[in-house]
C-alpha cells in the first residue's frame, strides 16, 4: 500500500510525541494509519526548538512515554531536566524502536482537510497530493504556530534573524556579535544566558517581566535513576491522577495561614529544589490574590538579591500578573546574567519597538544596531496550529470560523460539526497545564479505544453533540474563573496575539479529574457523541 492509498483508516497530522504514539496505538489495534509531518524527522516541538539552552521544564524521568515498560527502563537520561538534543535523540530512538518511520511522510505540509458527507471520509490536501481516510487526527502540538509581531520594517533587517521556535539546524555562532533579543518568556529566559556567554553584547527587550525559578539542574546519578525506575509503574500511576500530571509535594495548609518565618523557610527550601512545582507548594497560591502576593514578593526579593544594579532588578520584577498565571519560567542563571558587562535590559512596555530597521531596531527615537535579532516572541498557542490548516467539517463549516469567538470543543477531543475529527491535546483539555506526555498518552489511548469501539460496533461516524460541547465549554470557563489565571494577559488567554479572542483555552480542572471524566464517558457508551453507521 503506498501513501496515497485511499483505504487509510486514519490520517494523523504531526510526528511529535502525540503523532508517534497515535500511529503506534492505531497500528497495534489493526488500523491502517499514516502520518504527515512537515519536518524532516520526528520530534515536533523538539525538532524545531533548537535555540541555545532549549530544555524541557519537566523532569527527564517523567518527560517520556510510560506505555512501554521496556522502553522506560532501557532509556538512560543524563540530566534532571532534559536538553533539546537529548529529547530529540529519545524521539528518534522511539521511532526506530517501534519502526514508525515507514508510516510517516516527512517534509509534507497538510494545507487543508475537508469532510465529505457522502463518503463519510476526510480528504486531506498536502502540497502535492490528496489522500482520504475515515478519521482525521490532529497531533499538531499546542505551541507550534510561531508568532512574530508585525513590526513595521520587519523584512528590512540586513543581519541574521531567528525565531526561537524555527531555529536553524546548523549551529548559530554568536561569537563577537551584537545580539538583540525580543521577548522574555521561557524561551528567551533559557537562551539569554547561553547567548550572553558567546556574544560581544546582548540587549534584551522586555515588554513584561516574568517570574522565573531556578532549574537546579544536575546530572542524574545512576542511583537516582535506579530508584525511580524500580518504582516506575506506581509513580507514573500516581502522577496521572494529580492536578498537573507532575508529582509534587503539596502542603495542606494555606499560605495565608502559615507564620511568615515558616513560609519563608518553606519557599527557601522550594527555591533550592527548583522548577515549576514552586507554585504548587500551597493550595491557595493560584486562587487567593493575597496568598499569591506572598509568593510573588518572595521571588521579587530573590531578584533584588541576585541582580546587582537596583534599576535593572526593579525592571526585572514582575508586577502585572499573579505568579504562576503566565507559565512560570525555569532557568539556569537568568537573573545573574544581568550582572554581566555585556548584557543590558530595555523596557519596551511604555515605549514599544516602533520599527525593525536595516541596522537593527528602533524604540521611540532611539536606534539600536545589531548583527543578530532573536525573536523569542512566542506562539499562537493551542488554536493557532489548527486554524492555520483549512479544516472544513460537515456542510463546509470551517473550524476557524466556528472558533472565531474562541475554541469550542467537547473535552478538547472533538468539535460539533466535525465528524471523525479528533484533536490530541486540543483546547478545552488540560494539555498545556500539565506534563504534556501524560496528557498525550491519555488522549491517544482514549482515541484509540474510541475508534476500536466504533469498528467493533459497526459505527462509521462519531460526532460531538452540540449540547455536550456547550456544557463542557461552560464547565471549562467555570473552573478557570475560580482561579487567578484569567487575570493575566497570557497566551493561555490568547492575549499575546493581536485580535485573538480572550478565552481561557486549557481545562484547569486537573488531569486526574479529567481522566476520570473521559473514562466515565467512554464507559457510558460515549455519552455526548452521536455514533452512527
Ligand atoms: P512566550 O512565553 O509567549 O513569550 C513571548 C515573549 O515575547 C513575551 O515576553 C512577550 O511579551 C514577548 N512579545 C510578544 N510579542 C511582543 C511584541 N509585539 N513586542 C514585544 N514583546 C513581545 O513564548 P516562549 O516561546 O518564551 O514560551 C512559550 C512556552 O513554551 C512557555 O510558556 C513554556 O510552556 C514553553 P508579553 O509577555 O506578551 O508582554
From TrEMBL:
Keywords: FAD, Flavoprotein, Monooxygenase, NADP, Oxidoreductase. The keyword NADP applies. This is NAD(P)/FAD-dependent oxidoreductase. PANTHER family: L-ORNITHINE N(5)-MONOOXYGENASE-RELATED. It holds the Pfam family Pyr_redox_3. Its cofactor is FAD. Belongs to the FAD-binding monooxygenase family. It comes from Saccharopolyspora elongata. It comes from the Bacteria. SUPFAM superfamilies: FAD/NAD(P)-binding domain (SSF51905). GO terms for molecular function: oxidoreductase activity, acting on paired donors, with incorporation or reduction of molecular oxygen, NAD(P)H as one donor, and incorporation of one atom of oxygen.
